[in-house]
């Protein structure tokens, strides 16, 4: 049986990230059109290129290939009325509740538990689809994927740093594994 390979790429940097704001549907900081297909040779055998529906993931996907398929399961965490807000301007009690309880969504959007369930269902669906999937998505989605694959508790969610354009390799062959590779 052929293995499933899932490469999760975090979208390129945005102004919201640089300003410690929660994301809205903002564009990338870089000239993504001028750099289009600049990373296309990095994963030449990728069978499927997918991305979340937001502008920042679609623009990053353009660096890797022509037309990605939009995958709703890869959409960013719905942050409700916190979208576009600077972290420093949020109610500290609400923010602390959200950071310590995965079931809480004081912003009126999606809880981290809901995000993890959504991402886990999508990853499980890939188990019967061998081949390579290159997925351009968000830091929260990549954290959720790692919690699912590594079977970690919610308490680990905020201990994972996901940098712009970072790559996370996951492989499925009877069980999911995190694969660390060298690019030397």
TrEMBL record:
Lineage: Bacteria, Pseudomonadati, Pseudomonadota, Gammaproteobacteria, Pseudomonadales
Signal peptide: none
Protein name as annotated: Phosphoglycerate mutase
InterPro entries referenced in this protein's UniProt entry, alphabetically: His_Pase_superF_clade-1, His_PPase_superfam
Source organism of the structure: Pseudomonas fluorescens
UniProt cross-references to SMART domains, sorted A to Z: PGAM
């Amino acid at each position: 049986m052929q293995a499933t390979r899932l490469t999760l790429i975090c979208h390129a940097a945005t102004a919201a990230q640089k300003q410690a704001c929660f994301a809205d549907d903002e564009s990338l900081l870089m000239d993504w059109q001028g750099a289009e297909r600049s990373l296309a040779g990095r994963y030449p055998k990728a069978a499927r290129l997918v991305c979340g529906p937001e502008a920042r993931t679609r623009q990053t996907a353009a660096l890797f290939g022509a037309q990605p398929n939009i995958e709703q399961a890869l959409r960013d965490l719905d942050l409700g009325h916190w979208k576009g807000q600077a972290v420093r301007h949020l109610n500290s009690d609400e923010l602390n509740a959200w950071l310590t309880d995965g079931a809480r969504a004081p912003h009126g959007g999606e809880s981290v538990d809901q995000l993890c369930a959504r991402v886990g269902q999508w990853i499980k669906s890939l188990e019967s689809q061998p081949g390579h999937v290159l997925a351009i998505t968000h830091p929260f989605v990549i954290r959720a994927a790692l919690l699912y694959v590594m079977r970690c508790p919610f308490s680990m969610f905020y201990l994972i740093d996901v940098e712009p354009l970072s790559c996370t390799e996951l492989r499925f062959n009877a069980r999911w594994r995190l694969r660390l590779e060298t690019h030397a």
